Amino acid sequence: MSLSPDFLRDKFKGAILGCFLGDAFGSGFEGMDPEKARFHMDDLSKKFTRSYTDDTDMTLALAESMIQSGGVNPEDISKQFSLTCDLTRGYAIGTIKAILALKAGMKWYEVARIVFKDGSFGNGAAMRVSPVGLFYHDDLEGLRRAAVEQANITHVHPLGQWGAVMQACTVGLAVSQDPEEPFRKEQMVTDLREILWGGPIEYVKALNKIEEMVAQGKKFHSREIVQHLGNGVEAHLSVPSACYLALMHRPDFCDAIRAAISLGGDTDTIAGMVGAIVGAHVGEKKLPAEWIEQLEDGARGLSFAKNLADRLFEAWWKIHQTS
Ligand code: AR6
Ligand code: MG
């Protein structure tokens, strides 16, 4: 498969804006149960300015660092986190404490066990990882390494690390696919299984379940998806759900985000991860314009995010043109 540079650029923008959209549209539903989330689904058609939360905040910071470093460099990412992360945007305690410690001058490899001695298994390292999926989409081994390296700053627990690997890999596979060509969900599951080989049993079990659900061919009810794959802040109880939903609902972006929100629970993060995957698949041009125009702008808002995605593509292209 060979995609034109213009289409790849569009896919980079699709993933970053897809994450922004899922996060901003999903954040009003956080903590609801699936019934309540579905009951409030009409809120998605109301028009107002939609703000982003920590999911987008960290994604942008990671992308910015990767542009400067030409890839993942934990020391530089940490500097970027301490410089630009806005801790008023819905961050959870493990990541807040880690970033506060970075701001206070601690080294990047010293902060990940401040709150949880065995490290965090939250989905914070997965929710921000789409720039890694984009940048390493043509090198899945490099992608796995980079996903873990960026996770290690805040999430050294294997479940937190491998959740980042699974999400980055799904984004990477989505970038590589031409949406005009037939989409083989089963192949995607096989590729994920390969990259997650050697990881925690929780992800193997989740992939088995996804495979079983995909084979049944039907769209499962949100309550059943929650029961089988989860809707929590834990990486292993949210990343598999996001991957499954993106697989089942692409290429319809709005449909995929609605399905993510209807799970309830960690709606902003699950919708953000779904948005990044589907956006990477279809590209920016296929994202809903009437949703994009509601996104917060300003210093680090919509225009900034678009420009950043463009620059991330340029950084990737620079390396690939000369190699
Ligand atoms: N032991 C017990 N509970 C844990 C552990 C552990 N080792 N690790 C995580 N948790 P955190 P994040 C639970 O705080 O991953 C935002 O809303 C614990 O309840 O490391 O960045 C985002 O939008 C902990 O507070 O932060 C995402 O939804 C929680 O998991 C989410 O938070 C999250 O882990 C990202 O959170
Ligand atoms: Mg969240």
Task: Describe this structure in a few short sentences.
The protein is an all-alpha fold.
Strand and helix layout:
Elements: H1 5-26, H2 34-39, H3 54-69, H4 74-84, H5 93-103, H6 124-127, H7 130-135, H8 140-151, H9 158-176, H10 185-195, H11 201-216, H12 222-229, H13 239-249, H14 253-261, H15 267-282, H16 289-292, H17 302-322
Helix pairs in contact: 1-3, 1-14, 1-15, 1-17, 3-4, 3-17, 4-5, 8-9, 9-10, 9-13, 9-15, 10-11, 13-14, 13-15, 14-15
The structure holds ligand AR6 and magnesium ion.
The first-level CATH class is given as Mainly Alpha
Mean pLDDT across residues: 97
Bound molecules: ligand AR6, magnesium ion
Task: Assess the beta-strand content as a share of residues.
Answer: under 5%
Determine Rg (CA atoms, Å). 18 Å
Fold and architecture overview:
The structure is a single chain. This protein is mostly helical. It has one domain: ADP-ribosylation/Crystallin J1 (ADP-ribosylglycohydrolase fold). The protein is 63% helix and 0% strand. Helix 3 runs parallel beside helix 17, helix 8 packs antiparallel against helix 9 and helix 13 packs antiparallel against helix 14. It is globular, with a radius of gyration of 18 Å. The relative contact order is 0.20. The protein binds ligand AR6 and magnesium ion. The site of magnesium ion has 3 residues, from helix 15.
Quick tags:
binds ligand AR6, ADP-ribosylglycohydrolase fold, mainly alpha, 17 helices, binds magnesium ion
